[in-house]
């Protein structure tokens, strides 16, 4: 059985959450005045659809996890990556880790690493995240959060994620008016200069329930901040982690 043979995957299933706010994310504009107002996008490279890669601000990895990644990546294309954080883990005969990494080439990657019981680490898969077309849930299939991560367990962050101060402020303001969900921001995947700024944010989140032990899942949250600093969440979807891990 392969390392990922332990995955109990019934399929990539979940419902995309309805839009929150008015009419979805704002459309990109070519106006130089509007683009200059978006400070978050000034130091990044444009991607299809007007989105720009949001560079890594800091790393939230323990030395042990950093060592596991370094041993797995040695001699591979991922050796030059900067692992930012672990999104999820999976207990097998050892442990599988899903790392979110900055490739150093204006792109985010999901790198799955297997660490066996003897401490031998190897890369299972390495997939780039297309910021303009992030893999999300299949809305046509029934299922819940767990179907997006299979047998993986989402790591609940203990501190704020890989985010700039401006993005964190915009996200916090937008979250105040979004009900029914609790989100912990993990990383800003990209920004888009419009009449203000669109942020594409990767989050761990869970529906607000009476059960405090509700397991989190992974979400892609779109946030729009206008030129006056007002923010709103315009779209929330399940992030399809399994779509980035090759079996």
List SSEs in N-to-C order.
HEHEEEEHEHEEEE
Mean pLDDT: 75
**In order across it, which strands form the biggest sheet?**
1-7-8-9-10
The top level CATH class name of the domain at 19-57 and 159-244 = Alpha Beta
Extract low-pLDDT stretches: 1-23, 28-49, 139-143
**What spatial form do the alpha-carbon principal axes imply?**
globular
- Tell me the structural class: mainly beta
Q: Count the beta strands.
A: 10
Beta-strand percentage range: 35-45%
Alpha carbon gap, first and last residue? 11 Å
Largest sheet properties: 5 strands, antiparallel
Radius of gyration: 18 Å
Helix amount, in percent?
10-25%
Q: What CATH architecture of the domain at 19-57 and 159-244 do you see?
A: Roll
Oligomer: single chain
Q: Helical segment tally?
A: 4
Could you explain the architecture of this structure?
The protein is mainly beta and 247 residues long. It has a domain at 19-57 and 159-244: Nuclear Transport Factor 2, Chain: A. It is built from four helices and ten strands, in the order αβαββββαβαββββ. The protein has helices at residues 32-36, 63-73, 146-149, 165-175; strands at residues 51-53, 82-92, 94-102, 108-116, 121-129, 153-154, 181-194, 196-207, 217-226, 231-238. The strands form two sheets. A five-stranded antiparallel β-sheet has the order 1-7-8-9-10. A hairpin with a 1-residue loop joins strand 2 (82-92) and strand 3. The longest helix has 11 residues, at 63-73. The radius of gyration is 18 Å and the shape is globular. Mean pLDDT is 75; it is low at 1-23, 28-49 and 139-143.
């Amino acid at each position: 059985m392969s390392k990922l043979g332990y995955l109990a995957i019934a399929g990539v299933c979940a419902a995309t959450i309805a839009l929150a706010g008015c009419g979805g994310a704002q459309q990109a504009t070519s106006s130089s005045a509007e683009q200059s107002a978006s400070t978050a996008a000034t130091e990044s490279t444009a991607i299809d659809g007007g989105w720009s890669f949001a560079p890594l601000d800091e790393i939230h990895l323990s030395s042990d996890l950093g060592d596991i990644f370094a041993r797995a990546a040695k001699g591979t294309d991922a050796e030059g990556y900067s692992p930012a954080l672990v999104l999820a883990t999976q207990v097998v005969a050892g442990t599988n880790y899903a790392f979110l990494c900055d490739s150093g080439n204006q792109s985010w990657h999901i790198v799955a690493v297997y660490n066996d019981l003897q401490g031998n680490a190897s890369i299972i898969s390495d997939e780039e995240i297309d910021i303009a077309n992030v893999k999300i849930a299949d809305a046509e299939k029934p299922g819940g959060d767990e179907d997006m991560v299979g047998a993986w367990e989402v790591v609940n962050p203990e501190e704020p994620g890989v985010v700039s101060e401006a993005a964190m402020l915009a996200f916090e303001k937008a979250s105040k008016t979004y009900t029914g969900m609790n989100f912990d921001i993990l990383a800003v995947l990209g920004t888009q200069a419009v009449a203000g700024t669109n942020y594409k944010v990767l989050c761990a989140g869970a529906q607000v329930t009476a059960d405090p032990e509700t397991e989190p899942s992974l979400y892609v949250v779109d946030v729009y901040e206008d030129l006056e600093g007002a923010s709103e969440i315009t779209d929330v979807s399940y992030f399809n982690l399994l779509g980035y891990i090759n079996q």
